[in-house]
Recover the amino acids of this structure.
């Protein structure tokens, strides 16, 4: 027995060794540094905007101390019992209750009494306030003033989070429309290249035609061409086209085709890389059976390529979703065309100090990528590792 | 536009391409069965149907623009009158251009180095602990976020309030807690570039990480075990076995991030818009595309400067491709 268990024990000991502990701590440090920024954004977007503007997001988990002024009710709500007059209610009324630690009756000394103590006003009436804001004001004579007295309190408020910022940003700031616009840009800009390039990649892999190698070399060269190199001529083509037909040079079909152009090389290259791994015998068998290239493409290649399609779809979709430059150049900035990233940049300029709007807006723009990231991480990583060469 | 007309536009756009391929191929099949033409004839039309759309897009959106941009760089702001090398001469004398080039060099030097380094270190660490997968996931997450989104996240971190106020930016809160004066980080020339680069490193480390963790698995365990039995320290193993083994991968990641950094635009546009001496080539180019009605000559020169940076990589890719084809 002793002999058998030895390797296990050394392994366990190794795990507890100094270098392993050091590795754990170092990795933990990296993880904290990497997640803190996004985490802060998420927390901030859920905080009340007044609190957000005056305190760091890291303080939102602990109770915060606040000083407030409340007013008691007036003579209308008094009642008489055993020869005394009483006014009783809760200081917070309709507001969210807080936990009171001390109270006062003059502005000079706002912490004069602890909860439960009896404070005496000048007219000899007595008031006591308890922890949750209930007060009882007692007097020997009838209350005669319409207005109540001011009560100063120090209270701690528990951490509180709200979705109000999201409501405001989505509906009042126009991010909801931008969200829809971004979908209207991203879906065709992902599917069109996928359709065109799957035929193209098929031809490059399985058809023999003059100039095939040259075409393939052109695709590979286009992979790394920075899109800045193409912007000015495309913009002027669009302007000429718009002037010629009397349409706007900035339109959804325009940006779809621009994204198709910029994504064409990488999509084709990735698909070509995948298609050439398919067995040649299968294609030849189909041909012998009398299948045309289109039959082979539809019935054999497409079903086999679904995982590759998924990776490429995710990659291109995220690229388009996250793009700013192409959206700025080829779409208008009016509400019916502006995309999320451009809208966010606009808010950074115009609402630079309104962190509740910025953090919430950023989180909304990140929601779709993050959803894809967490649900389809496998395909995302696969596509990214294969296709990070995009130009 | 209402959501329905937008959805309809999208649907028509996508269906157009589906129908193009389906109908044209269907017609060809039909025609072929009827006339039973020779296979070569059928194949050449088929090849045209398969290739033409992609080739037209490739030509209109990549090939033609590349040569057109080169041509435009020798023409005036409207692209009409030939001005020789005037635009290039302007660029060399322009202080904004010089600063952009210097900043771009800074980005090229620092971002790929740090991202690759962090990616390598984290991939190694994550391999040793049981919660490594979760850690990798967290560090990889920024890869999914847009640069503008990342810009907002980090602008919040760099937020500055006057010395008396409570700091809501994390960096200034730490600075104050350590007993220093709060700083408006993004407005300090030279240093602010580093703060912008940090964002890119934060994003790209994830990419390096996933590629490295895939590559690490290809190192044979026997080699590592042999080294351990011989008493090599983990640090020694890292430097003498892992790094040499991953040389090729390091080069690939370096190249990928370099291409990306050459084109960096969004982060600077969103964070400082090139103020406080942070401009880079891509921002300057965007500026000249629209400044004063747009200057296509100067914009093209700036685009070409970015292109020059990728030419060695382009050549290397083509060389590799030819080598593979010959095998």
């Amino acid at each position: 027995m002793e002999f058998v268990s030895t390797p296990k024990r050394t392994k366990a000991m190794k795990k507890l060794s100094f270098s392993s502990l050091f590795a754990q701590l170092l990795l933990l440090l990296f993880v904290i540094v990497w997640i803190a920024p996004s985490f802060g954004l998420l927390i901030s977007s859920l905080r009340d905007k007044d609190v957000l503007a005056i305190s760091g997001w890291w303080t939102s988990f602990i109770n915060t101390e606040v000083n407030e002024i409340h007013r008691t009710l007036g003579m209308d709500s008094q009642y008489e019992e055993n020869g005394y007059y009483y006014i009783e209610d809760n200081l917070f009324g309709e507001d969210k209750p807080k936990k009171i630690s001390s109270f006062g009756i003059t502005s000079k000394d706002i912490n004069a009494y602890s909860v439960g103590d009896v404070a005496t006003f000048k007219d000899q009436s007595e008031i006591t306030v308890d922890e949750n804001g209930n007060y009882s004001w007692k007097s020997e004579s009838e209350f005669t003033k319409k207005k109540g007295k001011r009560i100063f309190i120090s209270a701690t408020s528990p951490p509180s989070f709200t979705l109000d910022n999201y409501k405001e940003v989505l509906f009042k700031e126009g991010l909801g429309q931008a969200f829809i616009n971004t979908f209207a840009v991203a879906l065709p800009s992902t599917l069109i290249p996928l359709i065109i390039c799957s035929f193209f990649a098929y031809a490059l892999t399985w058809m023999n035609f003059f100039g095939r190698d040259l075409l393939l070399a052109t695709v590979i060269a286009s992979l790394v061409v920075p899109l800045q190199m193409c912007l000015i001529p495309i913009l002027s083509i669009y302007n000429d086209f718009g002037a010629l037909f009397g349409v706007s040079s900035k339109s959804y079909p325009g940006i779809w085709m621009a994204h198709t152009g910029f994504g064409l090389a990488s999509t084709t290259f990735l698909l070509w890389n995948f298609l050439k791994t398919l067995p040649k015998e299968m294609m030849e068998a189909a041909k012998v059976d009398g299948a045309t290239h289109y039959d082979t493409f539809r019935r054999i290649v497409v079903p086999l390529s679904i995982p590759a399609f998924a990776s490429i779809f995710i990659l291109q979709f995220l690229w388009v979703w996250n793009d700013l430059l192409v959206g700025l150049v080829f779409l208008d900035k009016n509400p019916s065309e502006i995309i999320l990233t451009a809208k966010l940049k606009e808010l950074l300029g115009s609402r630079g100090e309104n962190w509740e709007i910025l953090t919430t807006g950023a989180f909304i723009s990140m929601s779709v990528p993050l959803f894809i990231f967490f649900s389809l991480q496998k395909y995302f990583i696969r596509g990214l590792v294969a296709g990070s060469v995009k130009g | 536009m209402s959501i329905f007309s937008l959805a309809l536009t999208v649907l028509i756009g996508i269906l157009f391409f589906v129908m193009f391929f389906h109908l044209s191929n269907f017609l060809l099949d039909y025609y072929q069965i009827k006339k039973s033409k020779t296979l070569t004839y059928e194949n050449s039309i088929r090849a045209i149907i398969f290739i033409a759309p992609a080739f037209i897009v490739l030509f209109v959106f990549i090939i033609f623009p590349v040569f057109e941009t080169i041509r435009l760089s020798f023409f005036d702001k409207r692209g009409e009158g030939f001005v020789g090398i005037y635009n290039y001469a302007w660029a060399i004398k322009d202080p904004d251009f010089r600063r952009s080039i210097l900043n771009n060099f800074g980005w090229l030097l620092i971002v790929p180095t740090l991202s690759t380094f962090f990616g390598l270190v984290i991939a190694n660490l994550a391999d040793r602990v049981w919660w490594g997968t979760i850690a990798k996931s967290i560090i990889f997450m920024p890869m999914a976020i847009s640069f503008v989104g990342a810009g907002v996240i980090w602008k919040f971190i760099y937020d500055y309030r006057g010395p008396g106020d409570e700091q809501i930016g994390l960096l200034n809160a730490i600075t104050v807690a350590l007993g220093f004066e709060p700083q408006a980080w993004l407005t300090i020339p030279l240093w602010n570039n580093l703060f912008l680069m940090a964002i890119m490193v934060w994003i790209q480390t994830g990419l390096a990480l996933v590629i490295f963790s895939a590559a690490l698995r290809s190192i044979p365990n026997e080699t590592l075990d042999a080294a351990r039995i011989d008493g090599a320290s983990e640090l020694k193993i890292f430097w003498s076995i892992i790094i040499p083994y991953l040389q090729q991968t390091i080069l690939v990641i370096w190249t990928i991030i370099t291409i990306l950094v050459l084109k960096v635009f969004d982060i600077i546009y969103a964070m400082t818009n090139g103020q406080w001496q942070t401009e880079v080539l891509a921002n300057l180019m965007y500026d000249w595309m629209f400044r004063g009605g747009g200057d296509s000559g100067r914009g093209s020169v700036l685009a070409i400067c970015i292109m020059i940076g990728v030419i060695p990589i382009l050549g290397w890719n083509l060389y590799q491709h030819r080598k593979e084809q010959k095998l």
The longest strand of chain A covers residues 64-71.
